[in-house]
Amino acid sequence: MLRSRALRPALILTVVLALLGFGVTASTAATTASITVSTAIGRQDGSTATVEGYVVGQPTATNTVVRSNFPNDYALALADSASQTSTSSMLYVQITSAFRSSYGLQSNPGLLGQKITVTGKLSAYFSHAGLTSTTAFSGGGSPDPDPDPGDYYAGAEGKTGAALKSALHTIISNQTKLSYDQVWNALKDTDQDPANTNNVIEIYSGRSISKSLNGGDADDWNREHVWAKSHGDFGTATGPGTDIHHLRPEDVSVNAARGSLDFDNGGTAVSQCSGCTADSDSFAPRAAVRGDVARMIFYMAVRYSGDDGFADLELNNSVGNGTAPYIGKLSVLKAWAAADPPDTFEKRRNEVIYTTYQHNRNPFIDHPEWITSIWP
C-alpha cells in the first residue's frame, strides 16, 4: 500500500502531461524500469526499451555467437545469465558507432560475462530477436564475481572434509571439454594482459608477450600444464590434458626449466623467470602467483578422481613424485594459497572459463576457505 502511494505522483504527472499534449519520451520511460532479456525477446514490436543482461558473445549469424577472436565492434549478445550458451535465449544488440570504442568486443573483450544496460529499438538483428538503433549503454565495470553462487554450489552447502570434496567433484565435473588445439585461443582470452589486449601474461615469469608469439621456438610462449601432465600420465588427452583451469601461457624455456617438478620452497634462481627458484626435485614460481598455482593444483585434485578413465589425482607432502598421480608439497601449497589470496586477474580468469569455455568453476577461487576444510 505504501509503495502504491509512493508511485502515485509520478503516474499523475504522466497523465497530466499527456492531457496537455506533452509526450513522455522513450528515454525517460526507459530510465524508470529496465526489462530482462527474455522479456525483450518476446516483445519484438519496434518499441524503445532499456534491457539489462550479461554480455555472452558477439553474433555473427542468426544462430552463431562467437566468444573469442571477435571480428569487429559492431554487435554483442545479451542473456539473462552469464553462463547462457543457447542463442535462442540471447538478444542480439547492434552497437551504433558512438559506442563501439567502449562496448565493442574486439576492443573490449573483457566485457564478456559482465552485466550491462542498453537502450534501443526492440527489432530483429541478424534475423534474430534484437535491439537495434541503440542510444545508450551503461555498466560493464567488472564481471559478476560469482553468478548465482547459491545454485552453482548448492550441492556443497553445509558439507566439510571428504563430503565437501565429493560434492565439489560432482559439481565441477559438469563441463565442456576443449581439444588441445582449442586451448591456444582460449588462453589468449583467459590470460589476456589487462594493460595490453594484444598480449597474454605468462604465469611463472609474469612477462607480457604478444598473443601471436605462441609456439615452440625460443622466447615463444606455450601451454604449460601446472599439474605436470606426467604426474598421472594423462599427456594432452582431452580431459585433464586440456583443462584450462590449470593450463597457462609460459615462456618455452621457463616451461622446460619447470619440467615436471613438484612444488616447494627453495632452490636457485631460474633464468628468465624473476622470483622463481628450482632445484633437482622442486620448483617455486614468483610470489605473486604462488596462490594461483596452489588453487589450480587443488582444483585438479578434486576434478579428477579416477572415475572418468583418467588417474585419481591427489596431493601429498612429498617431492620427486615422478609419474605417480601425485603432486606435492601439500603443506607448502596450502601456505602459498593463504599468503596469496585470489586477485582480480585470477577471478576474471575463473569467470571467463565459466562463462565462455568450460562452464565450470575453480571452487577454491570462489571459496578459498574450502582448502583447509578438505585438507586440514
- Main-sheet strand order equals 1-3-4-6-5
Structural class: alpha+beta
Name the beta content range. Answer: 15-25%
**What's the story with the biggest beta sheet?**
5 strands, mixed, barrel
Instruction: Please give the count of helices.
Output: 13
Q: In percent, how helical is the residue content?
A: 25-40%
**How many domains?**
2
Shape: globular
Mean pLDDT: 89
Give an account of the 3D structure:
Pfam families: DUF6359 (PF19886), Endonuclease_1 (PF04231). This is Endonuclease I. With 376 residues, the protein is an alpha+beta fold. The protein folds into two domains: 110 residues, Bacterial OB-fold (OB fold (Dihydrolipoamide Acetyltransferase, E2P)); 226 residues, no CATH class. Helix content is 31%, strand content 22%. It is built from 13 helices and 17 strands. The strands form five sheets. The protein has a five-stranded mixed beta barrel. The protein has a four-stranded mixed sheet with strand order 12-15-14-13, covered by helices on one side. Strands 7-8-9 form a three-stranded antiparallel sheet. The radius of gyration is 24 Å and the shape is globular. The protein starts with a helix and ends with a helix. The N terminus is likely disordered.
List the SSEs and their pairings.
Elements: H1 2-19, H2 26-32, H3 37-42, E1 48-61, E2 64-66, E3 75-79, E4 91-94, H4 100-103, E5 115-122, E6 130-139, H5 149-152, H6 161-172, H7 180-190, E7 192-193, E8 196-201, E9 208-210, E10 221-225, E11 247-251, H8 252-258, E12 262-263, E13 268-270, E14 273-278, E15 282-284, H9 290-303, E16 314-315, E17 326-327, H10 330-339, H11 344-357, H12 363-366, H13 370-374
Parallel strand pairs: 4-6, 12-15, 16-17
Antiparallel strand pairs: 1-2, 1-3, 1-5, 3-4, 5-6, 7-8, 8-9, 10-11, 13-14, 14-15
Helix pairs in contact: 9-10
